[in-house]
Design a protein that fits this description.
globular; 12 helices; alpha/beta; single chain
Length: 382
């Protein structure tokens, strides 16, 4: 097994001997992102709990609709074409390499199917990020380069499992995909307790998945939107289970992936073969990864809430955020109110003020400090 990890700001020539770069795990406006984090956050602070209860009563009084954060969701700002171009542009302009891009929206493959309609993009891989309820936690599995003829049927089975978990079905899906030599199965951000199940519950679920179904997991993900410390833990976990690590950008905004995979493969299936058969990987962290994580997350908020005139995804943020109406039908929240609530507009206005020159200077200072961190997982072969 050969695992190599490079940081472009430390090794500006890291990609010179490579022919291609692979971007895994990026999201488009077809990805439905849950808003359940809002009440989870509010639960920590009495003032926020009171505020949400007040707004819920207000919504019920004015529209006869309770605020439902479990079903409500927002969508990323980029269309499939724009998301694809963001990734290919970074690879070609910054690294000067051939690009392979695998977009993985949550629980659907619409983005890839739309892109493949164009003749010059018929080789775009059909990929997905599958939310898997498992042993009291929720794990996310990246499935890259699904067979086109059976992709719809496979996704239907996966979503049936998500709605009604049955571990026999989970094993059946993973085992079948494992037999497809050009499919890559990645456990995404394995150390992130996404639904707040509790650190112990989540860690135990990951260990149980690897013990039971680890033969079908080809790699663990080092995430472009996960912290240095968390990625170190993922690397150690992968070492313990004898599986390689690959880069997954987990891009939701307009910034391109903060980590990529370097290879000399001439196609995505050839790269997948390197990971699966030779366990050979080279992860490259891009300069944006050294920026403070909070600043990069703030940028996603700004990207998501800014106006996008003429965008098929919707011009305003409330065209791209959805909530059930009185009948339970999911609709853009712009259709559920007469005008945007002033308190939300004020909050987004405050976020935009944070784009000021003073803050950017503070971020640049923090970035320079973080670039000095000795970001080493260990380069020994295992």
């Amino acid at each position: 097994m050969e695992r190599k990890i490079s940081c472009l700001w430390k090794e500006p020539r890291a990609a010179e001997l490579c022919q291609s770069a692979v971007s895994l795990h990026g999201h488009t406006n077809f990805s439905q992102e849950s808003l359940h984090f809002i009440p989870d956050f509010a639960c920590r602070f009495p003032i926020f709990r009171w505020f949400l209860r007040m707004k819920d009563r207000e919504a019920m009084r004015e529209s006869k609709v309770h605020i439902d954060f479990e079903r409500a969701f927002w969508t990323p700002p980029l269309t499939p074409s724009a998301a694809y171009q963001v990734e290919t542009r970074q690879i070609s302009e910054v690294l000067g390499l051939r690009s392979f891009v695998s977009l993985t929206d949550h629980d659907n493959i619409h983005a890839a199917q739309l892109l493949r309609v164009h003749k010059d993009m018929s080789d775009v891989p059909i990929s997905i990020e599958w939310g898997v309820p498992y042993r009291g936690a929720e794990l996310h599995i990246g499935l890259h380069n699904l067979p086109p003829r059976s992709a719809d049927k496979t996704v239907k089975t996966m979503n049936s499992y998500t709605a009604d978990p049955n571990e026999a079905v989970l094993k059946e899906v993973l085992a079948e995909l494992h037999t497809q030599k050009d499919v890559l199965i990645v456990l995404n951000h394995p150390m992130w307790d996404i639904v707040g199940a509790g650190e112990d519950v989540h860690r135990q679920a990951v260990q149980q998945l690897m013990a039971s179904l680890g033969n079908y997991i080809h790699a663990l993900e080092l995430g472009g939107f996960r912290s240095w410390e968390e990625n170190r833990k993922v690397y150690e976990l992968a070492m313990g289970w004898g599986v390689p690590t690959v880069a997954g950008g987990d891009r939701h905004g307009c910034e391109p992936s903060a980590c990529l995979n370097l290879t000399n493969a001439a196609s995505l299936p050839e790269y997948i073969g390197e990971v699966r058969n030779r366990k050979q990987t080279h992860v490259l962290f891009m300069p944006q990864y050294a920026r403070p994580l909070w600043a990069r997350m703030l940028q996603v908020v700004l990207d998501t809430t800014k106006e996008q005139p003429g965008s098929p995804a919707g011009t305003y943020w409330d065209d791209r955020t959805f909530h059930p109406d009185r009948t339970g039908t999911m609709r853009p929240i712009s259709a559920l109110w007469v005008r945007r609530p002033a308190f939300i507009e004020m909050a987004f206005g405050a976020f935009r003020l944070l784009e000021s020159g003073a803050l950017r200077h503070a971020i640049a200072t923090e970035e320079r400090r973080r670039q000095q961190i000795q970001f080493l997982f260990g380069q020994e072969e295992a």
